[in-house]
Amino acid sequence: MKYFGFLIVFIISLVLAVGLSVNLGQVPPLGYLMDPYHGFWQNAYSEDDFAQETLALEGLQAPVTVVYDDHLIPHVFAGNKADLMMAQGYVTAKHRLWQMEFQTRAAGGRIAEIVGSAALDFDRMQRRKGLGYGAKMGLQFLEENEPATLELISAYTQGVNQYIDQLDLSRMPVEYKILDYRPEQWTPYKTVLLLKYMADMLVGDRDIEFTNLRHVLGESMVNRLFPDIPSGNDPVIEADHVWDFDPLPVHRPDSVVYPDFSLLIDPVPAPAPGTGSNNWAVAGEKTKNGHPILANDPHLGLNLPSLWYAMQLSIPEYTVKGATLPGALGVISGFNEQVAWGVTNATRDVRDWYAITFKDHNRLEYRYNDQWIQSSVRVEEIPVKGEVAYLDTVIYTHYGPVVYDENFHPNDQKMNFALKWTAHEGSNEQQTFLDLNAARNHGDYLAALDHYTAPAQNFVFASSKGDIAMKVQGKFPLKWPEQGKYLMDGNNPVFEWNGYIPYGQNPSTLNPDRGFVSSANQYSVGESYPYYIFDNSFEDYRNRRINNRLREMEDITLEDMEALQFDDLDLHAAEALPVMLEKLKQDTTRKFDAQEQALLGVLEKWDYHADPDVKGPVAFELWWDAFKESVWKWLDQGERPIVYPDNFMTTSLMRDAPNDSIFDNPATTGQTETVVHHLQTSFDQASRAYQDLKATHGEDLVWAKYKNTTIQHLVANFSAFSREGIFTGGGRSIVNATSERHGASWRMLVELGPETRARGIYPGGQSGNPGSRFYDNFIETWAEGNYIDFGLRTPQDVENVLFTTTLKPTD
């Protein structure tokens, strides 16, 4: 009854939210929602309330046992891989069907079909980026080259669809009822599309912003403020690593002429600040028990239902456990009896933009190498709820789709911009994870990665044999220095990619002398690596904190790794704040009033740990944000998008070059600004902001309250299905990278000894049903930095069995 009342409150809030966010023609029929036999009332249940002992699935070769533990984590025991995949599809759909379908709708640009014209611009962007095209190329690649993978995807698909076919209307996920639509059949295309969606979530480029900065600053100043290799780099692969291959030749053209104009277009959204990840593995020589320990915590948007779904999958050949991605096969980050692996984003520039000149308004030919060559036309028919379908004509060049043109975000610029992206190419990322699930050693791990194209990832590895390894994996274009940093001329062949770096020459390491491997989205390699690497968003703080701690630590235990995953030292603040305070006080004639003294007191007493119940991080963030804005606002170009230099560069200039001309705002006359000027004016601003916040929130304005970590439903205005005000610490550049809307979407620790020991947690719950007690029951555990035991289980030793279901072949 508790959850029954809970859901009533949810639905009342939700109906109000829908009514306030869309026009009346799109509000679902309230009579249907209130139907006592089929409406939302029927979603007020937890899964164990309706546990079924036996279910028949067509196509199974033998019975499959599914044992749910007391966290609703299924342990699936099958006799062969095809049955295992069918059972995984069925079980995942049973608990996450709406999420699976909604995410693939978003990937394919099909949201307007269920919510109306408000989502039309989003749908057009998704389609113009070519996600659906890339998925079709991926499916074609499987059909022609990897039929065994496709057979397993088809088995998974069959499992999903059998759940849909026997789904009773009363048990339909509540989101379908609110938005007034029905689930449709799953297809192998959707699984491929989901993996392309992950590539989209984790890739970014700043070609448009850098083009504008180059126009304003000149190339040499852009290179100074945005160096290709960060100073003080502590790379993913140890800096002194020796490369044992002969690199392919890549020659920079003698003359490179970029299109020289500033751009008004709105760039394709990059990953939100805070999107990142940590992973590492320590060798047995550094652990208390003498066994390798692997850790992984991907940082993504904090959503409900959770991005991840925990499962154990077992056949006679192997047992694997970890985080699955609803809609994809196997375990994505996890372990089996012999090996463990995890992933972080490798932040590589694999998406480039080209300015296209068409022959005429028909756009059937475009200029390349001073000749007119033929384009192709793809008409995207976008269904719109309550309206006629929208037809969007997208032109494809040999580079890729023309995303921006006179019909889409032209912003008065008669320019055309084509996107070249590795995700448009045929590939088989699914096989990578299927092979990792069954891997037994380092060789199997490397062979599995040979299938992997996008998104670029740092794959960490450890084995019970004692090996630890890291590989930066993806399909990386061969580029000459600075190629792809700016918008390129689509007519000029010198801007073409020069092929790809061979997979065997991607950065990797095995059992380094330092006794650990780690990655946290930093630059991949030392300066000796022979290929050009660039991205706009390499991380500068989490990686150094992790590496410094791992160098110091000995006799490491799982508990030590728990503490490191939850570490909340703000290294950026520790390096920047003492300099800020010292320079602020250089003017000895300045007198601080009582409010400013109070802010100074908070800052001076802070120990740089972003604990949830302290005020220091609030004060520092207010001051730092105001300071950074003060320093760089002169770069703003109105509606033309740009990017500011990052915190590491800003801190370095503040510390090492306080009187540099870079701090002088050219828009002001009669004065020359220095760092001290910006620190003083920004401190005044921060002091006022701090007082305003205290007036609103009271004296107990602590970091968790200010930060307001929110785990949001996938439909943002379904706030009744979200959780706000999570009491937890951390922050964007901190190992515990929990910010307002992003953080550790999955934390996993694995010790690979004679008996594998594992712990895991994520900020949500196993159920996709907001009325279930398993919808968000992990959140408090996650917020406090705790874990659940995540060891491998046999059918007989699953602890605290919730219920067991047997899936049997049809007669």
Describe the fold and architecture.
Helices cover about 30% and strands about 20% of the residues. The chain is globular. Among the domains are: about 1-45; about 570-705, Penicillin amidase (Acylase) alpha subunit, N-terminal domain. Strand 12 (about 365-370) and strand 13 (about 370-375) form a beta hairpin. It has about 800 residues and is an alpha+beta fold. Helix 6 (about 130-145) crosses helix 7.
Features:
811 residues, single chain, alpha+beta, 7-stranded antiparallel β-sheet, 29 strands, Penicillin amidase (Acylase) alpha subunit, N-terminal domain, disordered N terminus, 11-stranded mixed β-sheet
Helices, strands, pairings?
Blueprint: H1 2-21, H2 30-34, E1 54-57, E2 64-68, E3 74-77, H3 81-108, H4 112-115, H5 120-128, H6 131-145, H7 147-165, H8 174-179, H9 188-201, H10 207-217, H11 219-225, E4 276-282, E5 293-301, E6 303-304, E7 309-315, E8 318-324, E9 333-335, E10 339-345, E11 351-356, E12 365-368, E13 371-374, E14 376-384, E15 387-396, E16 402-404, E17 416-421, H12 429-438, H13 442-449, E18 457-463, E19 468-473, E20 488-489, E21 508-510, E22 516-519, H14 542-552, H15 558-565, H16 571-584, H17 594-605, H18 616-632, H19 647-656, H20 675-697, H21 703-707, E23 709-713, E24 723-726, E25 742-744, E26 747-751, E27 757-761, H22 779-783, E28 788-789, E29 803-809
Keywords: Hydrolase, Zymogen
Family: Belongs to the peptidase S45 family.
Protein name: Beta-lactam antibiotic acylase
